[in-house]
Design goal:
Strand content: 25-35%
CATH class of the largest domain: Alpha Beta
Number of helices: 11
Structural class: alpha/beta
CATH superfamily of the largest domain: Medium-chain alcohol dehydrogenases, catalytic domain
Helix content: 25-40%
Shape: globular
CATH architecture of the largest domain: Alpha-Beta Complex
Radius of gyration: 21 Å
């Protein structure tokens, strides 16, 4: 059972007063790697010692101010934090010191509006708080989390916290998108952006769910990784333009009819439009990636109507989606492709993201 009050001196005794963090002080950066105070949990919060944090393209968007919602400044980014609870707020009874937990994109929601009551906490009508965007996230050694929204990491995953970190956003996001697609075992699903952090996990979750997968990306390294996960591969740079890309995808599906669904994870506009062309009649295009600059894409009305194409958005998963996505990992069905670097090296990871040279996921070790 948790202690009656773990914000007291006994529980905070071994917790330092200062910590290292990566801080964005102005839109556009640069990152500042410096010491900041270690926060103390409020009544409904827990303090998490972050061991590892995945790096998401969203974190880069936040620093650059790419989206209509302004991030809070100064900003500590990060929302794929895996660690252990080291202190509890006075009202917390659902967690104990030492529990392995995750800090995710959804920091908190009201839990009382119609969306929250229906299990759509990310759509909270009162506006959810977002880790690493509207509140400080996991690019620091100690991070606050709401006890109600902290992800419960299975105890059997304690030795794999570095691999678990990307599941907390990338894994949950693509797992939710696959559920939204309505694809059933045996159906064909295209993953556009298959070689990135989300795409690498999307291919695996899709295979674990009994789906056939076509991955779209470019480069020999990404092709090797995607094919190694049991998926077909189409290199968009070698496809001969949009028409050639669509033809290649369709050719891989039975009868050349096209895919039953497409998950578009790209950070550019073009793949969204292309997806409406290579899905079959009654196909579903699930929009997941968030390109900057208020990107839009157009689909021909006649074709969309007569082929009964569905276009839908999929945001991050809810708390149940998180538990299910983590269970896939704990059962050994998902292998996370990642590279580990120190927290101090975050800027170099951002540079690779900007250049489109990230295969899989980068994970930050907060101890260095």
């Amino acid at each position: 059972m948790p202690s009656e009050s773990s914000t007291d001196a006994a529980n905070m005794a071994e917790i330092p007063t200062e910590q290292m963090a990566q801080v964005v002080e102005a839109i556009g950066g640069p990152l500042v790697y410096k010491k900041i105070p270690v926060p103390k949990p409020g009544p409904d919060e827990v303090l998490v010692h972050i061991l590892y944090s995945g790096v998401c393209h969203t974190d880069l968007h936040a620093m650059l101010g790419d989206w209509p919602i302004p991030p809070a400044l100064p900003l500590v980014g990060g929302h794929e934090g895996a660690g252990v609870v080291v202190a509890l707020g006075d009202l917390v009874t659902s967690l104990s010191v030492g529990d392995p937990v995750g800090v995710q994109w959804l920091h908190s929601s009201c839990l009382a509006c119609e969306h929250c009551l229906a299990g759509d906490e990310p759509l909270c009508a009162r506006g959810p708080d977002l880790s690493g965007y509207t509140v400080s996230g996991s690019f620091q050694q100690y991070c606050l989390a709401k006890a109600s929204h902290a992800a419960r990491i299975p105890s059997g995953c304690r030795e794999d916290m570095d691999a678990v970190a990307p599941v907390l956003c990338a894994g949950v996001t693509v797992y939710k998108a696959l559920k939204e697609s309505g694809a059933r075992p045996g159906h064909w699903v295209v993953v556009a952006g298959a070689g990135g952090g989300l795409g690498a996990l999307a291919c695996q979750y899709a295979r674990a769910m009994g789906l056939r997968v076509v991955g779209i990306d470019t480069g020999a390294d990404k092709e090797k990784m995607v094919r190694g996960m049991g998926a077909e591969f189409v290199d968009f740079a070698a496809a001969g333009g949009e028409e050639g890309l669509v033809a290649r995808v369709k050719k891989l599906t039975p009868g050349g009819l096209g895919a039953h669904a497409a998950l578009v994870l790209a950070a550019r506009e073009e793949p969204f439009r292309q997806a409406t062309q290579y899905v079959r009649a009654r196909g579903v295009v699930v929009c997941v990636g968030l390109p900057p600059d208020n990107a839009q894409f157009a689909a021909p009305v006649f074709d969309t109507v007569t082929r009964m194409i569905q276009i839908r958005g999929s945001y991050v998963g809810n708390r149940l989606d998180t538990a299910e996505a983590l269970e896939f990992y704990s059962r050994g069905l998902i292998e996370v492709p990642f590279k580990t670097v120190g927290l101090s090296e975050l800027q170099s990871v951002y540079d690779l993201l900007k250049a489109g040279k990230v295969t899989g996921r980068y994970v930050l070790d907060t101890s260095r």
